[in-house]
Structures are given as structure tokens and as C-alpha cells.
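C-alpha cells as discussed.
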């Protein structure tokens, strides 16, 4: 998935009419690998507890609102949800 998303970002860099923004969990093992995206990186907090989704399901509506707000700040024509 990392390679695919980097390919999409690279394609957007090659064309002037496409702008890429990537939302990545700060808890991701590969979070540091995304730092090169600069202001195109939307950092989000997700699950940190071992039982993850069960214990942290309450934060999903907040996460959705945070992503929606980030998308409103830029012109979004396409969202790829992985």
C-alpha cells in the first residue's frame, strides 16, 4: 500500500492539474516515511490500545469529521480509500 500511495503522489507531482493529500495515522509504524510529503500530509490519531477498534470505536465520528475538514481546505476531486 505504501508503494501504491507514493506512486499516486509521484503522479500528482508530474502533472500540474492533480494535487495529492495523504492522511496517515501517527500511530502507523511507517509514519516517519511519509514526512517528505510536507503540507500534503494530513496527520490523524487512530487506535493506540492493543484492543484497538473495540476500545477506540468512539473516535471514528471524530476522525471522519477531521478528514472532512481537511478535505474542505483543498479542492478534492477524488478520494482513494485504502
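Sequence:
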Amino acid at each position: 500500500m505504501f508503494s501504491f500511495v507514493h506512486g499516486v503522489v509521484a503522479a500528482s507531482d508530474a502533472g500540474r492539474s492533480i494535487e495529492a493529500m495523504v492522511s496517515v495515522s501517527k500511530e502507523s509504524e511507517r509514519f516517519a516515511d511519509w514526512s517528505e510529503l510536507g503540507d500534503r500530509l494530513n496527520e490523524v490519531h487512530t487506535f493506540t490500545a492493543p484492543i484497538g477498534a473495540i476500545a477506540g470505536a468512539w473516535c471514528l465520528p471524530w476522525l471522519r469529521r477531521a478528514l472532512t475538514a481537511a478535505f474542505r481546505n483543498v479542492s478534492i476531486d477524488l478520494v482513494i480509500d485504502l
